[in-house]
Amino acid sequence: MSNNIAQIRKAAGMSQTDLADAIGTTLNNLGKLERGDRRLNQDWIMKISAALGVSPEAIIAANYDSNEAGSRQDRVIVTRDETDELEIQQWDIAYGMGAGGYLDIPVTGETYRFSESWIRQFTRAPASKLFFATGTGDSMSPTILDSDIVLIDTSEHEVRMADRIWAAAYGQAGIIKRLRPMPNGSVKIMSDNQSVPPETAYDGELHVVGRVVAIVRKM
After folding, report:
1. What string of H, E and C letters represents the secondary structure of 74-88?
2. What helix, strand, coil percent values describe the chain, rounded to 5?
3. 181 preceded by a cis bond (ω within 30 of 0)
4. 28: number of Cβ within 10 Å
5. Full-prediction pTM beyond 0.85?
6. Residue range 18-41: average pLDDT?
7. 8 Å CB contact between 193 and 175
C-alpha cells in the first residue's frame, strides 16, 4: 500500500535511521514500510505519525501536502521535558496473571505524568480512560513477566478481535489474559505460558476492563 512516510520524514529533516530508532524498529523494516513492501497496520501508523508529529491520516492520505510536514517539524523530537504531557493514574490493584488479585479492594493510586507523544504510540484514548497496573504471576510469560507494568485502555472493552491481551474480572479475580470470542457466545481465556491450560467464560462470568496496549519492563 502506498503511503507518505518517506515524503513526510524528509520534509521533517529526519533520516531513516532517526525514524527507525524513534518507532523501535530496524532500518530494514522501516524501508519495507516506506516502500509498501510490508503491511502498514494501525499500530505502525500510530507510532510513525507520533514520531513525525503529524496526524495518522497524513500517513496514508492520497493527496498529502508536504508543507504540512515542514510546518510541524518542531514536534518531531520529543523529550520528557516538553509540555505535551498527560496525567495517568497508577492503580494499586494488581491484576493477576495466574492466581489473581481480588477486585473487592479500593482502586486508588498515584498520578504520573508522561509525554503525550509517547503515549500516542499506543493509543489515542483520553488520559481519563487510561491507567497503569502491575501484573502478578507467570501465566503470561514470556510476553508479560511478574511485576511488569501494563498500560490499560478502558475505552476498549468489547472483545471484537481474537487473541489480543485484555485486563478483565473473571469471577472475583482480576486477570490479564488473551481473550478469544467463540461462536457460541462464550469467551476463551488463554495464557501465553503453555503450561497453563485455557478456560472458558460464559454469560456473566467475564467483565472486560480494558485492553492492554503497552508493557513497561524494569531493566
Report:
1. HHCCCCCCCCCEEEE
2. 25, 30, 45
3. no
4. 10
5. no
6. 89
7. no
